[in-house]
Structure to design on (176 residues):
């Protein structure tokens, strides 16, 4: 076999191997550069009371969830009942309303229940960009020191909550 055919064949095999490896990877497991770093700080008005603001420093000393959602997000509909259940079980969930219309977001929560302790209203999406949001929904867990310890891109499922999120959310030094 001449080099004329050997080099393209080697390149084809290498590309095929790389594509094969890529197909075995979880597309939702997008690494975040924010893991183990302080959560970006922000101050935003609340969806239901624009005269009141929310800042993550208000939750220092607590482990909490930041869920990025929008009324136009179809995937958010699938995870919302699970968030309601988490909230009913005592989880502190902050719902960052992302690039939405306030009236549509309020109506959405009225129809489906409101699992959020606070709903900061990020109409421009600026805060979402600072948090590295690439798709809605996204969910973060922030520890007692204000450090991001977990991120999930896409709609939460019961399995993800049980196997990944809850162990991180309920982690304590004493539990290890």
């Amino acid at each position: 076999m001449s080099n004329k055919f050997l080099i393209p064949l080697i390149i084809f095999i290498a590309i095929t191997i790389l594509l094969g490896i890529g197909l075995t990877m979880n597309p939702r497991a997008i690494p975040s550069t924010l893991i183990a770093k302080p959560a970006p700080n922000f101050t935003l008005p609340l969806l239901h009371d624009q005269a009141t603001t929310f800042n993550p420093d208000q939750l220092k000393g607590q482990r909490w969830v930041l869920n990025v959602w929008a009324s136009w997000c179809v995937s958010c509909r699938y995870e919302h009942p699970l968030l309601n259940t988490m909230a009913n079980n005592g989880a502190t969930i902050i719902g960052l309303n992302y690039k939405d219309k306030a009236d549509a977001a309020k109506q959405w929560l009225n129809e489906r229940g409101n699992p959020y302790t606070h709903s900061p209203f990020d109409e421009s999406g600026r805060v979402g960009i600072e948090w590295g949001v690439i798709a809605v929904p996204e969910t973060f867990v922030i520890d007692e020191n204000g450090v991001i310890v977990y991120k999930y891109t896409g709609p939460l499922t019961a399995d993800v909550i049980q196997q990944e999120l809850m162990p991180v959310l309920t982690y304590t030094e004493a539990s290890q």
Notes: The chain has a mean pLDDT of 91. The CA atoms of residues 52 and 63 lie 22 Å apart. Helices lie at 3-23, 74-88, 102-112, 126-130, 158-169. Strands lie at 44-45, 53-54, 64-69, 93-98, 121-122, 138-142, 148-153.
